[in-house]
Every structure is written in C-alpha cells, then in structure tokens.
Amino acid sequence: MAAAAAAAAAKPNLLLPVSVAIPSSRVSLPTGLVCSARSPPPRLRAAAAAAAASQALTSPVAAETPEAKQMRVETEAALEWGGVCARLAGFASTAAGRAACGEGRVPVGRSREESERLLEQTAAAALLPAPLDFGGVEDVSAAIAAAAGARLLAVREICGVGRSIRAARRVFDQLKTLSEETPDGRSYTPLLDIMQDCDFLTELVQRIEFCLDYTLSVVLDRASDKLATIRKERRKNIDMLESLLRDTSTKIFQGGGIDSPVVTKRRSRMCVGVKASHKHLVPGGIVLSSSGSGATYFMEPRDAIRLNNMEVKLSGDERAEELAILGLLTSSIADSEMKIRHLMGKILELDLACARGSYALWINAVRPAFTDRDSDTQLNPNSECSVFIEGIQHPLLLEQSLSMVKESTRVGKGQLSDEHLVSPMPIPLDMQVRNDTRIIVISGPNTGGKTATMKTLGLASLMSKAGMFFPAKGTPRLPWFDQVLADIGDHQVVSVF
C-alpha cells in the first residue's frame, strides 16, 4: 500500500497510509518552516506494514484486528479527534447522539462510498430551514435489552419505548413534509433514505398507547375487561369502607374519644384513631397499631373487617392483572427487538447527520471532495495534486475563537474587558501534495506551527471520512485514506481552554 507521511526534524511524526499514490508537495506554512524529504521512523513504517497486511487479508469493511484498533485509538488521541467529537455533541438532539459523540463513537466511513454517503447526508442536513424536532426520542436500549432478557418492564420503561417509536415517526414525517413542500425537495433525499427501510411498528405503539397513560405512567382501565371489572368492584368497595369509617370516626369524636376524626391506614388496612382510654367506643374492633406515645390506638372496626378483606383481595387481583398486561407488552417489545433497535439506530444516524450539518454551519465549513488517481488533469488543473486544500484552519482552534467572540459580544457594545479578549483566529494553511510525492518532512523552530499543521491535515482526513465538513476555502480535495496513523512525540495539545 502506498503511503504519505509528514515528519518533523525533532519529535513530531505523522504517517497517512492511503490506497492511492501521493506523489510531490507544497505546503504553505508560517514563516520559518521548511519542507524536505526524509524516511519515516521505524515505528510508523511497521504500523504502515501492519495496516497494509490487514487490508490485504481482509475486506475494507471487515472487523478491525486488535493491532489496527490500538493504532487507531492512539492516532485519534494524538490528533485530538475526541475534541472534535465532543464539539459535535453540542449539536446532537438525542441522548444517544450526545453519548455517542461524547464517547468518540462518531461513525467513520469504512469505505470511500460510505464516506461519500455521510458527506451527502451532512450537505442535506445543512440545508434544513430549521432543526428537526427529536422531542420524545429516548435512549431505550437498556429497556429493549431487558425485555429481550425476559425481565418484566415497568410501566415507565414501556411508555418510553412507545414514546420513542412515535417520536421517530414524527421525525420522518417532518422530513417527508419538507421534501414534498420544498421546490427542490430532492435535496433532503439523503436524509430520507436513512429512514426509508424502517418499520415504525404502528400496531405495537397503538397497543401501548391503548393500555398505558404516558403522562401518569399507569395502566388504564381499558387495558383489559378483567382489569376494568376489578377496578370497578374495588372503587365500590372502597367507597363503602370509607363511608363506614367516616361514620365511626365521627361517633368516636362526638363521644370524646379523639380530638378530631381520624381515618387512616395501618398494616395495609383502613382503620380509625381512638384514645387508648376510649377504645370501648369501638366494640369488637381490632387494634392494628398505636402511636409512639401509646396514647392513641388505630383500630379496625368489626364491621370494616369484611370490607378490608375484600380490599386486600381486589388490590392483589388488580396488581396481578396489571402485571399480566405489562408481561404481554414486554413480550411484544421483545418480539420486535431487532426492528426497534434498527429504528433507533437510524434515528441516531439521522441525529448525527443533522449535528454534522449544524456544526458545519457553525464553523463556516465547506464540503471536501475525495481525489481519484484516474482523474482527468485536463478537466481539473488541480488533479495533479492528491491533496489540494486552501485556507484550512484547525477546527478546534477555530471553534475556540468563535466561542470567545460570541462570549465577548455579551460584555458591551464595542468594548471588551481584559477578561474577555477575543482569541486570534488560527492561521489559514494552504496544502498541496502532488501525486508523485510519498513523504513530506516539515522542519522549523519551536512553536512554529509544525504540530498544528500536521494535526490539521490529520483531522481533515478523519473528518472527511466521517462525513464532516471542515473550515477551508473553495472545494478542498484529498484522498480517501485507508488508514490514518499519527505518532506525535511531544504530545502537544493544540486546543487550550
């Protein structure tokens, strides 16, 4: 496999293996930096060889080997890819989207075609007239796993599943309406395509909504005829019991047996309060408990025993029927596990696409294009360069500056305090790497921009593979790299907050 590498005279080294040859180069850098040819260090040569062997033995979308995964993780850490993902989290609308970005699980294209598809989605999302409403979409992965594992779901969990599926349908309907009402509705096709093969499980959602109250998180009477009958009998029994106890408590109060009528519950049974010295006012009653001082007894009148027994029985019957209904709903969710996971995965994909679009608008980014080794130089005079990027700025440094500018506008009209000085914008870089160049060495003084330059190109490569736009001029062009490997020896962090 051919490879392109940027290496510093001292510690920083960067290797970018790519499936196309990267032949001579010109990089516009801050004054004092010099480009020259040099062999890559042994560690990166070994990494490139391992990556090439892995690519030769496996398909482009095959699972990573442990060695390849370790090198990828090290590269992402060196290039501060997690910082870019963390910024993207601020534009995600769902809990799952924010979690994926915060944990660095932003999908990166495993093939050029997949990266092109991600870029198309980002371009479509950037055209949305307003953000899509993902309200109601919850992270239900734990509930789905529990249902599949034969654990009975609680009412709240089942309601969350129903709300999320219903909300997913609303998001799709929003996109479909935009596509139909916008003159150039085909612009949103890449986003619609994400949801096209989804099953919105209408029957399951209707069943959940029929049985459960989303607001109160309770099982409704109409969930089953048996439950409706039990609750009707229980309400009638409670009315009779409460009426009896109110009458009894009033008589006790009138007889001086209590300072004010008291009807309460002790040991899951309804009872009345009476002074210990006046318990004779409740003949045949049962003492269920007493106050802390022992001065008041809580007694169950004799006539209330049968009604209390009926209440305990009906309460148990009601709970058993509720559990049976929840069991049926849990079973239905478990049966639809794969469809629900697929739907929620697509919603996550759509949320990340919209987040990429919003992030691109925030940093005024442009869409990159992947170069082709067989491109026609007559049609494109810049096709002799596999990397052709003008005015690129490090995205983390740029966003830091934009955030500080936004914050500074709150201080006053035209006047900034010393504590809110605007951070200077990062220096734009022009990068041109000819097709016949294999190695680039950047040398120059300390703090001259060598590390920031290499990290900028490395991040641009990762961002383009992940379908993200980056801040540059025109239409930046670079190869779709099979592997991006970086070994930054001084462990600089270019984004400082």
From TrEMBL:
SUPFAM superfamilies: DNA repair protein MutS, domain III, P-loop containing nucleoside triphosphate hydrolases. One of its GO terms (molecular function) is ATP-dependent DNA damage sensor activity. InterPro entries: DNA_mismatch_repair_MutS_core (IPR007696), DNA_mismatch_repair_MutS_sf (IPR036187), MutS (IPR045076), P-loop_NTPase (IPR027417). Residues 79-400 form the DNA mismatch repair protein MutS core domain. GO terms for biological process: mismatch repair. This is Os04g0680700 protein. It comes from Oryza sativa subsp. japonica (Rice).
